Amino acid sequence: MAEVLVYVDHVDGAVRKPTLELLTLARRIGDPVAVALGNGAGETASVLAEHGAVKVYTHEAAEYADYLVVPKVDALQAAVTAVSPAAVLVPSSAEGKEIAARLALRIKSGIITDAVDLEAGENGPVATQSVFAASFTTKTRVSTGTPVITVKPNSAAVEAAAAAGAVEALTVSFSEAATGTKVTSRTPRESTGRPELTEAAIVVSGGRGVNGAENFAVIEALADSLGAAVGASRAAVDAGWYPHSNQVGQTGKSVSPQLYIANGISGAIQHRAGMQTSKTIVAVNKDAEAPIFDLVDYGVVGDLFDVVPQLTEEVKTRKG
Amino acid sequence: MSLRIVVTVKYVPDATGDRHFADDLTVDRDDVDGLLSELDEYAVEQALQISENSDDDVEITVLTVGPEDAKDALRKALSMGADKAIHVEDDDLHGTDAMGTSLVLAKAIEKAGFDLVVSGMASTDGTAGIVPALVAERLGVPQVTLLSQVAVEGGAVTGRRDGDTASEQLQASLPAVVSVTDQSGEARYPSFKGIMAAKKKPVESWDLSDLGIEAEEVGLEGAWTTVEAAAERPARTAGTIVKDEGEGGKQLAEYLAGQKFI
């Protein structure tokens, strides 16, 4: 069977969930060959093997942390040369998309970004994308070169599938461009102990109706009772009530969880663009006319400061 | 010393309008108003601030690739304070994908001459956010992308990139390609004086032959991806809406339990 390269997103050897989802999707079109780069690359092999990687290319070098994006493009290009894959899959993070784009250009291949599903097709893999604030669904394929496809988190359920996972050191020679952009310092994001927003199965969001940074505690309490990530609308972020890293929407993050609970969010198009593909949508809002209610599976017209704490208590009780 | 900044901007269909596809599966631009992509306003703003903070002689050129109406996007950028504009317009560009767009931008940027390219983090219609990286790859210059803060000094650009897991400080020598996020700073509104001045600023029009690009390298024919189908997402079936009369939270919990979320 044809080999499919999967770029591994990991932090010091801890593989992030979207990569495991990619391995599941890769198996639909061929044998997954993983590419893990940088500090801890070797430690990713066992979990990648448990999820179907027949081979794991690893390469550790200081360049991956010291310079932006390009060293990773050089390495992925070396892997493409080594295996001539049927496709290259990369997680749709901001950096993942940049790596994929530069790789695609170098190997004269078309790129599809932000796929939400992937299937084998007669003329190569067919990717589903969700466009125009999720009001349209398109099916796209790459018509030139080796398909390079970035896939959004939560596009497939992670399935275990044991495979050889043979570790092989990748030979990489860095290009002149590799050292162009220096990373002069790096501050890791402080962990909140909550799931990562784009990966979470449940997202609880707050908007203008939360009316103050201190009131976000109400949103966080509900999120914690459900094991959910916390999101915020642009209005709440612009008001300084919650960090930009938690913003859901056109200029923030795009999320596609199993359950999205919007609290005090009116549902402007810019917000809908970031959450409309959520499987189940619930909203709590005082304004019965809020556009968010057009999207919901279940909506409560009421004051979030009455409804949300009551819901949180009920969740805690039911979970015992 | 002088600093030549090229700001790339896109004219996009208004997100609040009724966006859909034409028969050839390209974006239908006839039935919806267009405007300067909001995220590109931040790019224009940062170019203006770099200029205002610089001792050098700074010239800001705003560049777009698009149909006739895309001039509106250039006018907006000029009225904010950019010095001149370049409009790449050609019938053969219809249906060009991100790869083709990056080719046209790179050729035009080279022709215009540049020390720094400033772009928005993504367009508000395509939202992929890959064009700045592609332009950097084509130009063979450093990419310093997704910046929430940016500064240019002594022939180098520095900035802060807020990623999923960390915040990074970046540095590169000029020439370079920068992209900025909506956190980089509120974009200014054009003043009346700015709007009047914009009418007199030069707008050059270039076509593919001016850039040495063959028609088959761009457009729908030259795209390296093929859209096979586009379907309007079925409207969500009307959900259950209840009014909170004291038991709203409990009712919602009951619903979530029924859906097996609790």
Helix segment count of chain B? 7
Oligomer: heterodimer
Helix vs. strand class of chain A: alpha/beta
Within the largest sheet of chain B, what's the order of strands? 9-8-7-10-6-1-4-5-11
Distance between the termini of chain B: 65 Å
Query: Quick one: overall form of chain B?
Result: globular
Helix content of chain B: 25-40%
Summed over residues and divided by their number, the pLDDT of chain A gives a mean of 95
H/E topology pattern of chain A = EEEHEHEHHEHEEEEEEEHEHEHEEH
Number of helices of chain A: 9
Mean pLDDT, all residues of chain B: 93
Number-wise, the strands of chain A total: 17
Ranges of chain A with pLDDT <50 over ≥5 residues? Answer: none
What does this structure look like?
Chain B: This is Electron transfer flavoprotein subunit beta. The complex is a heterodimer of chains A (320) and B (262). In chain A, 27% of the residues lie in helices and 27% in strands. Chain A is built from nine helices and 17 strands. In chain A, helix 4 packs across helix 5 and helix 6 packs parallel to helix 9. Chain B has a nine-stranded mixed β-sheet with strand order 9-8-7-10-6-1-4-5-11, with helices on both faces. The mean pLDDT of chain B is 93. Chains A and B meet through helix 5, strand 7, strand 8, strand 9 and strand 12 of A and helix 3, helix 4, strand 7, strand 8 and strand 9 of B.
